[in-house]
Amino acid sequence: YADTCPASKSSKSHFRLHLSRNYGAQLIEHRVVYALIIINKAGGLVYQRDFTEGLNKLSVNDYLVLAGTFHGVHAITTRLNPLHPPNEPPSGIEVLETEHFRLQCFQTLTGTKFLLFTEPFQPNTDKIVARIYELYADYVMKNPFYSLEMPIRSEGWERRLVREMRVLNSR
Question: Which Gene3D superfamilies does the UniProt record give (predicted)?
Fold first, then answer.
């Protein structure tokens, strides 16, 4: 079912979609960031990276379909969002939780979406996405050879992102 709930004391509403609540109070000792997908403002896949071994592998076409589908669902949920202050743009799905993973979506002001897939009880996913966005700004957006909306191909970005996620996954 879908429900809205304030995630903080700010006036911004968050749209949460809970697919299942069967996980209860499980003790999870290891926190994991599984993967990152970046979608441009038109819904096109510009980046995809897995950070753990043993994940089910999807084809490139599957990732393209996933990006387009999420983009469409996100656009629809912006209209479902309850009333919001006029100075804030409406937000779509920001968190999707299942028994097996949690998806955290961060949308930039330019419409780029960062989808972070983590273990369901991974703490501070909003801070992890914010850190990834900082790296994106430093290594991708400041790269004079990068064209906005195009696939991300940057060795510096890739190296730094993988290093950060490796440290995070080893805790």
Answer: 3.30.450.70
